[in-house]
Design goal:
The complex is a heterodimer of chains A (150) and B (93). Chain A is 35% helix and 37% strand. Chain A is of the alpha+beta class and 150 residues long. Chain A has a domain at 122-150. In chain A, strands 1-2-3-4 form a four-stranded antiparallel β-sheet. In chain A, a hairpin with a 2-residue loop joins strand 1 and strand 2 (45-67). Chain A is flat. Chain B is α+β, with helices and mostly antiparallel strands and 93 residues long. In chain B, strands 1, 2, 3, 4 and 5 form a five-stranded antiparallel β-sheet that branches. Chain B is flat. The termini of chain B are far apart. The chains are: A alpha+beta (150), B alpha+beta (93). Chains A and B meet through helix 1, strand 2, strand 3, strand 4 and helix 2 of A and strand 1, strand 3, strand 4 and helix 2 of B.
């Protein structure tokens, strides 16, 4: 039984180390190198992309051990069975999840004219935000009209 | 408060300088780091570029136009909703 328990404890420790390693890589996204890309050279111009990144994750693990369930009615416990060989209950588990997203924000252009920062405008996102805002405002207007008419 | 600071961190960091011709660029980023016992969250965005040329350093901020427009639309819709709600409330009175 102690052998099984130590195996479970070792397994949980190993999972914990792996989870911490993954989380360490997650927090590596907080460095400037994660948002600025490699410079691209074309002729006299050098272009550096800049983006926004976000990511998160979590993990959990657990384990347990306990005495074997009591014998049900009709079963006769084997009194001759040594303590170390009596069945025990145990279990363990690990789990985790995460996600990340990235979005271009601007492009830095270095050329003969100097250094320029050009923003990247995401028309799709702006259009969706516009439609959502207008939808919400129209709903409120409709509510106001119904309240005024009623 | 210390625990709060351990859980939430807002840090501005400078990256490795890059030299192109006679210009040296130092990228800067701003990151929000949230830690909890079994996980974490990171949000990192480009903040500015430091341009050094001829002994002079200029800071060029990086503006996220898309985010500004999104937040502007969101704020406008909130203000509009609040105004409509106040008018509705006054009508009921």
């Amino acid at each position: 039984m102690s052998h099984m328990f130590s195996n479970l404890a070792q397994s949980l420790d190993k999972r914990q180390e792996q989870s911490l390693e993954v989380m360490g890589k997650l927090f590596g996204a907080a460095q400037p190198g994660a948002v600025y890309g490699e410079p691209v050279v074309s002729g006299n111009y050098t272009v550096i992309p800049a983006c926004e990144v976000a990511g998160g994750g979590g993990f959990g693990f657990g384990g347990g051990f306990g005495p074997a369930p009591a014998p049900t009615a009709g079963e006769t416990p084997d009194k001759g069975e040594p303590q170390s060989q009596r069945p025990v209950s145990g279990g363990g588990g690990t789990g985790g999840g995460g996600g990340s997203t990235g979005r271009p924000v601007a492009v830095i252009i270095i050329g003969p004219e100097g250094v320029a920062v050009r923003p990247v405008v995401d028309v799709t996102k702006i259009t969706l935000a516009f439609l959502t805002a207008w939808g919400a405002m129209l709903m409120m207007l409709g509510k106001m009209r119904r309240a005024g008419g009623g | 408060m210390t625990r709060f600071n351990e859980m939430f961190q807002l840090q501005t960091a400078s990256g490795n300088p890059l030299t192109v011709g006679d210009v040296t660029l130092t990228p800067q980023s701003q990151a929000l780091i949230v830690r909890w016992p079994a996980g974490g969250f990171v949000w990192n965005r480009p903040a500015a570029i430091l341009v050094e040329r001829g002994g002079q350093t200029e800071r060029m901020p990086i503006v996220d136009v898309t985010r500004i427009v999104q937040l502007g639309l969101l704020g406008f819709s909130w203000v509009f909703s609040i105004v409509v709600f106040i008018k509705l409330t006054r009508r009921k009175e």
